[in-house]
Structure formats: structure tokens, C-alpha cells
Design goal:
Elements lengths: L2 H22 L7 H20 L3 H5 L14 E5 L9 H13 L3 E5 L12 H8 L5 H16 L1 E4 L3 E3 L5 H4 L3 E5 L6 H4 L1 E8 L4 H16 L8 H12 L1 H8 L13 H4 L6 H8 L4 E3 L15 H7 L1
Parallel strand pairs: 1-2, 1-3
Antiparallel strand pairs: 3-6, 4-7, 5-6
Length: about 300
């Protein structure tokens, strides 16, 4: 059986599993939360079932030898069109990073990105053809940036309220775990913030898993393909499992405490500080429809003007 036919049948099986377990046999008498939990579990299970075809390649991965000369600690982020073309909320997030981070902020765009990274031609070509969406390409780039240079990754929509805690800076590798918000229960980890040291083996194996997948595939099987490839790596690659086990396990939920439920609330300093106290950044959303009519005096307005 050819690889293309095998992948097609595998995707059909993935969808059949998700439909059967996540929908048809998802008991209607259960609560909404229970049904959602079952659906998310089925989503992860179906995706991993398909991804296991790449397990042998991922199991054999060893990070490539590279120059480990230390570099200055930097914080990286990307806005493809350039910082000046970013929407107001993203610009506010960049200002917050410069205000609170001790590290230099490097804002990359489509032109400057390749001054910092080196990717296989097939990855770049599939991205330029639209086969790898911007989001998944950004996932690949953030791991590449940290593996080659070390430092911090922040999504362009991370609103920073404090310096990165020292316990995170002390880690060779750190991501927040999925938690229960924003489909985190099946995404495994959050990747809008990553701490990684140059040549860290988890980063190298994670990137190798990305390359193995996209060398064969022309589309994502799941929005969180990047996250699930790390999960698979920790399951089948001995080095990734050992090094990932050393990482403190902290849920992402406090990083989503502010925007989703409270951005339209009236701004009050004490309330704002309470909502942001448990994390050094808050994830925002520049596509949020509420930004079309920002209420005067709201938390959203405060963020936009800060």
C-alpha cells in the first residue's frame, strides 16, 4: 500500500473514531461539561492514533550537533507583516513586553525571520504554498528560534504584566501544561510561551517530530498538531521523556484569567491586579469582536492605551 493511500485511510479512521466516540456515542444525558470532556478526549485519541505512524521516526530522533556557545537572553515574537502593521492590541502587547521583560525583545517579520532560523526547503515551500498555515508555521519557527539561539518565546498577543519568574528562567525547557481552559484538556501543553535553552534536547526532538510529520503531510490533522507531536515525543523518545519529566508542571489556566471573561468589564486597578496576580502574562485575542466597539473605561481600553 502506498504512503498516500495509507495516510488517506488513516485520516478517514481518525475522523470515524472522533465522530463515533466524541459525538454518536457521547451520552446525551450527561452534562455539557462531561460531553465536552468526552469529545476532547476522543479528539486527542483520534489524532494520536493517526500520529503514531511517525512514532518509529520520532523514537530514533537525536538532536543534531550544533554550536552551544551561549547567546544573550532574548525574547522572540513574530508579526509577519511587521510591527508597524500590527493591530492596536498587538502593539499594546509589544509595549507590555518591553515594559516588563528584562530580556531584549526581538520582533521578527516575514523578511527578517530567515536571518535567525534555518528550515528544510520542503517546510518553507509548503508554507509559501499555503499547505502549512501561518499558525502551524509559527509553531515550527518558535521551536527553531529557541533551539538555535535560546531565550523566550511570546505570542504577539501575550500581554505581559511582570518579569518572567526566576523558577522558569532556571529551566532548560518550560511550557505551561494544558489545563482546562481553551481546549487545553486535549492540547496537552500551551505554546504561546516557551522557555528554552540553546540546543535543548526536548526542543531538538520536538522540532524533529515536526519535520517528520510535514515531510510527508500536506495539511494539519488537528489545530494542535504541534502540541500533540510533543506529547507523542515524550511517549516514544527516551531522551524527550527523561528531560520533559524534569520540567515543573504548571497549568496554563491563570494565563487566561483576564481577557476572555473580563476584557469588557470596567477597569479597576485592584481588580486588574487580582486577575493578573497568578501569572506574568495574559493571553489576549486581537480578533475578538468586542474590539470593534471598545467600551470607555473598560479593561480592554486600559490594555490598548497602556
Amino acid at each position: 500500500m502506498s504512503n498516500s493511500i495509507s495516510r488517506k485511510l488513516g485520516r478517514m479512521a481518525q475522523q470515524a473514531h472522533l465522530i463515533a466516540v466524541g459525538h454518536i456515542f457521547n451520552a446525551p444525558w450527561k452534562s455539557r461539561e462531561e460531553r465536552r470532556a468526552t469529545r476532547y478526549k476522543a479528539t486527542r485519541s483520534a489524532a494520536l492514533r493517526y500520529l503514531r505512524r511517525y512514532a518509529p521516526a520520532i523514537r530514533a530522533l537525536k538532536p543534531e550537533p550544533m554550536d552551544t556557545t551561549p547567546e544573550p537572553e532574548r525574547a522572540f515574537t513574530i508579526w509577519y507583516q511587521g510591527e508597524e502593521q500590527a493591530p492596536p492590541l498587538v502593539k499594546a502587547c509589544f509595549r507590555s513586553m518591553r515594559r516588563h521583560l528584562k530580556q531584549e525583545l526581538v520582533v521578527l517579520d516575514e523578511k527578517t525571520l530567515f536571518d535567525w532560523i534555518s528550515l528544510p526547503d520542503y517546510i518553507v515551500e509548503k508554507w509559501r504554498k499555503g499547505l502549512i498555515p501561518h499558525t502551524q508555521f509559527s509553531d515550527i519557527c518558535r521551536v527553531e528560534l529557541l533551539y538555535r539561539h535560546g531565550g523566550l518565546w511570546f505570542d504577539a498577543t501575550d500581554y505581559v504584566t511582570a518579569p518572567v519568574p526566576q523558577y522558569i528562567m532556571d529551566q532548560n525547557f518550560f511550557v505551561f501544561m494544558g489545563g482546562n481552559k481553551i481546549r487545553g484538556s486535549y492540547a496537552f501543553i500551551q505554546s504561546c510561551f516557551i522557555r528554552g535553552r540553546k540546543a535543548d534536547p526536548v526542543l531538538g526532538i520536538w522540532q524533529g517530530a515536526n519535520f517528520a510529520y510535514w515531510k510527508e503531510e500536506n495539511s494539519k490533522i488537528n489545530y494542535f498538531i504541534h502540541h500533540l507531536l510533543l506529547l507523542l515525543s515524550t511517549q516514544v523518545n527516551e531522551t524527550a521523556a527523561r528531560e520533559f519529566a524534569k520540567m515543573p508542571k504548571v497549568d496554563q489556566d491563570p494565563t487566561h484569567a483576564l481577557w476572555g471573561e473580563h476584557c469588557a468589564d470596567t477597569y479597576d486597578k485592584a481588580t486588574f491586579e487580582r486577575l493578573t496576580a497568578d501569572s506574568f502574562f495574559q493571553k489576549t485575542n486581537y480578533k475578538d469582536s468586542r474590539l470593534k466597539n471598545v467600551q470607555p473605561g473598560s479593561i480592554a481600553e486600559h490594555i490598548l492605551n497602556s
